[in-house]
Every structure is written in C-alpha cells, then in structure tokens.
Amino acid sequence: MRKVIAAAAITMALITSCKMENNPLLVESPLPYGAPQFDKIQTKHYLPAFQTAIAEYKAEIDAIVANEAEPDFDNTILALEQSGRTLDNVSSIFYNLHEADTNDEMDEVAEEIAPLMTECSMYVSLNQPLFERIKAVYAKRDQLGLEADQMKLLVDTYESFARNGANLSDSDKELYSKYQEELSLVQLQYSKNVLAATNAYVLNITDEADLAGLPSFVVDMGASTASEKGLQGWAFDLSQPSYSPFMTYSERRDLREQIYRAYNTKAVGGEFDNLENVKKIVDLRIKIANLLGYETYADYATENRMAKNTATVMNFLDELLEPSIPAAKKEVADVYAFAKEHGFDDSELRPWDWAYWNEKYKDAYFDLNDEMLKPYFQLENCIDAVLGLATRLYGISFEARPDIPGYNKDVKVFDVKDESGKHIALFYADFFPRASKRGGAWMTEFRGQSIVNGVEYRPFISIVTNFTKPTATAPSLITHDELTTFLHEFGHALHGMLAEGRYGSQSGTSVSRDFVELPSQIMENWAFEPEYLNTFAKHYQTGETIPQELIDKIVASKNYLAAYLQVRQLQFGIIDMAWHTLKQLPADLDVVAFEKKTLAPSNVIYSDPACATSTSFGHIFTGGYSAGYYSYKWAEVLEADAFSLFAEKGIFNKDVAASFRKNILSKGSSDDEAVLYRNFRGHDPEPRALLEKLGIVAPQK
C-alpha cells in the first residue's frame, strides 16, 4: 500500500512540474475570477493538457484507493467528487470550442483524445477497489447522519458506478470499455459528417429575378454570405438564419425544393454519409444496455429521470399526441385551402411549400410576418432587454468586460453580480453563425459552480446562437422566433449562473434531462408579454416603440400552428424512442425506411421518401438527449403550470421570482426534481396544462 502511495506522490510531482510549463490550459489564470485565457490558448496546447490532466485525475483516484483509513463520506465520496478538476476544466474548454469555433486540427485532436478519455472514464468507473470503498460507505449510509444533499451525493455516486459497469465481471468490464470507446469514436465521426455536410452546400444565385419574394433583409444577408464565401451575387446556406427565411419567403418553388432537400438529406449517403453511423451508435447502445442488465437502451436511460421508465414516456407522448393530431390536420387543411385559393395547384402541400404558404396564411389572417417585426428587434436592444429581465426578476446585473477575452472576436463577455455587487458568474454570449460553428443554439459552461475545501468557484456560463449578422445596410435584426430562442437559452444560463450547491455534480444544469428544460422554456413566455415587449422593442431606424397593434397580433398569433408544431416535436421524441427501444438491430435495417415507418402514423403533412432526420439528429445521436428528446415536452408541461403563477401574480413579481430562484434555479439536483417542483408550485403538474395553454383542448371549468 505504501508503494502505491509513493507512486501516486511521484506522479503528482511530475504533473506539478508539467503544469509549470507555459500551457494556458494548465497554469492558474491571472485573469479576473480565473477566467480562461482564450487569447493564449492554441490548438497545440490541448493534447498535452489532456495528457497531463488525465494523469492527475488517475493519481487522485489512486490516492483515494490507497487511503488506509476506513472508507467514509469525506475520504471517499467527497474526495471523488472533488477529483478531476483539471480534466473538467480542460475538457469544458476543448469540447465547447470544438462545437462553437472548431478547425481541422481540433478535429484531429478530438480523434486522438477520444480513446484517452474513454480509457480514463473506464479507469474510474470500472475501478473495483474504488467501488468497494464506495459500497462500504453506501452500506452504512443510514448511520452516517448525512445532510440531504450529502445523502443524495452518496446515493448518486453509488448508482452512477453501478450504471457504468462497476458490478460487471472482469470480462464484461473489458467488453463494456470496448463498446464505450467504439461509441465515442463513431459519435465523433457522426458530428464531423453533419458539420461537413452542412458547410458543403450553398445555393448561389446570380440572377436577381431568382430573388423573387425575398424581403430586403434576406437579400442583404444573401449578399453578405456570398461576399464571405467569395461568390458573386447572393448565397444561401443551411444555417438557420439563411435557410429558414429563404424557405419562408422565396417564390421560387424549385429553389425551395432544392435547398429543402439539401437540408433534409444532410449526411444521407454521399461523401459525409451517416447512415452506417446511426446503426453503429444504436447497436452499441443496445449492447451496452444489455451488458448492464437492461432490455433496451431506453430502459437504461429513463431510469434516473423524472419519468423513471420507458412506459411512462410512451404514455406521455401518446397522451399529448392523441388530441394534437386532429387539431394539427385541421391546421394543415386550413393552410392548404388558403394556398389553393391563391393559385397553388398541387394535389397536396409538400414540405418545401409549408413554410412559404403558412407564412402567407399567417400574414393574411393575422397581418403579421417577420419582415414587419424584425425592424423592432435589433439584437443590441434585445441583449439589453434579456439581461434586464434577469435584473428585474432576480436583482442581478451585467457589466460588459472587454478586458476578459472570448474565444472569438464575436463573443461578448459580461461580469454578473448580485444586488450587493458581489460577483456571481461570467457570462459569454456568442450570437453569429460562422463555418467553424455548428448550427442551432445552446447553453454550456466553461466552469460550473462548486465549493471545494471551503472555496466557492463561481461559474463561467456561455450561450451560443446563430442569429443574422449585421449587413452593410442594417444592424443585426432578429426575428421574434429568435428572440424566443434567446430567452430560452438564457433561461438555461440563469440555471447555471444562479447555482448555489455544495457539489458540482449537483449544481446548475446538472439535473435530470426531463427537468433541465423547465428554466429555459419558462423564459419563452416573456416574448409574448406586452408589458415586457413595450420596454425595448423599438424600430431601429425611427426609434418608434412597437405599435400596440403589432403586439396584439403577436399575442393573438401565439398559438398559430400550435398543434402542428406540437406534433412535430412529438415526432422527434417518437423517433428517438423508436431507435432506443430496439432490443436488437436488424441486420437488414434501412435507416430511412425505419424512420418513415415509425413516423407514418403521426404524419400530418406529406413526407418525402428521400429525406430523413436521423442522420443529422445530433441531439439524440451525439448529444445528451438519447431516449430523452421527450423531455422538451415534459418540461413544457412543467413550465405551462409554473408560468401560470407568474401570470396570476404578475410577470415581474419578485416574490414569485424569488421562489423560483430558491426552489428551482439555485438547487440544481440537490434534491429530487419532483420535490423541487412541488416546493415551488405546491402541486404536481398535469399534461392537460400544456394542451390548454396551446389551445388544443378547452380549459376545464
């Protein structure tokens, strides 16, 4: 045992020596609050940083195992919780930038470190002597006098090891490690293919007549994109700020079909094919679940979520889907009838017609469209308004810190402080699309909140979006949908910034997947509140406050196509569960055909046989939503019920906000999420709350 301790001491000495080298990922940052030195980090720093951090983590694990004292909460559970901090810091920076600001060299690093990270994970999770110490503490848990969050940390730690193979035989542990390494590599290739396929397509228009129907802001954006890509005329790509407006406004049906097919066949065959990768990921997850004693991967994944099991998820999806399909079919029929009245002569609406005609219908029915609204939503004003909403609700303030570097010139950095002026977080905001960034919008963190040896580490939180860039003739103007997205991701950010837990694994957004969307989705409600919109929505040219007439139309159109959009979201959850409830992968499985067959009963609009979602559905194949995409709707049920309290008491009510902060935002997963919700709302939510909010069913009297 003393030899083990001595070896660990030597390893730590070597690591300390390595850290003294000038690697900005390993040395203590001199920046305020220890902020990452993004201005000094280079791609060459990542691999040695990972190697050093992994060695340090293993040495810390060895020290826990070598401790000759009887296992207890502090020397085993807490020591494990606080180990691997350097690796967490390096990983958070690398993997976040690999999504938001990547390059070919980072792709190479990602491939090189994937097996290192998998082996390190297995070194910990399959470490039998370590697990024996954890089991020893777990066995006497009721005699330890632990506080609630300590008990939950102990139980979570034990269950995490059990769920990651600690109880397997030696031969099965080897197999488990092999499967996990294979899975990490194929997921990496899947992500690379999606990004490459997205960047590979561009619709280059050189004849001005082909711009028919496009508003000036879309035309200007197309010209800007063409200039960036070194092309003549106008260019439209598969990023959301480019693709979505083109599909909505272009009168050229043939061009809409072309870009639609490109978007919806990403990585379906061709140079960046993901068809085989989808099958490999699903097959490996089935094998991993079976090894751990579960019939399907969904059984494994749902066990530690609010839903608890697959049957609950399937019943939940059905409960929402059944009343939504007839309502959605009526919405589609109304849009189709409108299109027919206005010259559309096909036998049915095709997917590339949908956005165009439902926007025309909305414009005619509500007299409202993005072109009318965008001038009132200048991004700079929206930033002030979203941050200001947090100030009004929670008393926190945001100070721009240009002296703290971001990882890209477009990134804005803010120092977040509470009402007393005390620092509580750094907030990084990255708004604009670029070739080095994947599509979509998300929140993440470079450092989570935790307390270690009596020292509190406040979080570094980031949101990433793909909003329209400023052009030569206009500032960045965002759509109302993009404002809603901004509020959504900022809700996640608040969950991270306002965290107050003792343990990082329980802090901030470290909650069950079907609870994590509550803080984000509840924030979307303010995008439809006149009392809020009136405070910032001003015309970027005239300074005129948004007319009440337009606000009334925004509110009136809030549930426009609500049933259709609900069915669409439910379909994502359905295909996710279909993949992850497979008990084995058929040898002759056709990915596209499987998806088509699965979704056919819930289709409310024509589904093109060549198009598929699975090959680019990163949320479930490489993200954290495998067998968990239903959680968006689960959380919508929570937020529909939760926001009703704000609606009743006042949308800026500080007492309600304080309760939401105390019981939801600050708690992380320090208690069972169902308990946290009841502590805030006083009762359990019901799916009907969402159906009523969306107008799919009438309110009960």
What can be said about this structure in brief?
This protein folds into four domains: 2-125 and 127-167, Orthogonal Bundle (Neurolysin, domain 3); 201-264, no CATH class; 278-368 and 563-610, Neurolysin, domain 3, CATH 1.10.1370.10; 375-556 and 631-693, Neurolysin, domain 3, CATH 1.10.1370.
Structural description of this entry:
The chain has 4 domains: about 1-125 and about 125-165, Neurolysin, domain 3; about 200-265, no CATH class; about 280-370 and about 565-610, Neurolysin, domain 3 (Orthogonal Bundle), CATH 1.10.1370.10; about 375-555 and about 630-695, Orthogonal Bundle (Neurolysin, domain 3), CATH 1.10.1370. The protein has a 5-stranded mixed beta sheet. Strands 1-2 form a two-stranded antiparallel ribbon. Strand 4 and strand 5 (about 425-430) form a beta hairpin. It has helices at about 1-20, 45-65, 75-80, 85-100, 105-125, 130-140, 150-165, 170-200, 215-230, 240-250, 255-265, 275-290, 295-300, 310-340, 350-365, 370-375, 380-395, 480-495, 520-525, 530-535, 550-555, 560-580, 590-600, 620, 630-650, 655-665, 675-680, 690-695; strands spanning about 205, 235, 395-400, 410-415, 425-430, 440-445, 450, 455, 460-465. The chain has 28 helices and 9 strands. The chain starts with a helix and ends in an 8-residue tail after the last helix. Helices cover about 55% and strands about 5% of the residues. With about 700 residues, the chain is mainly α.
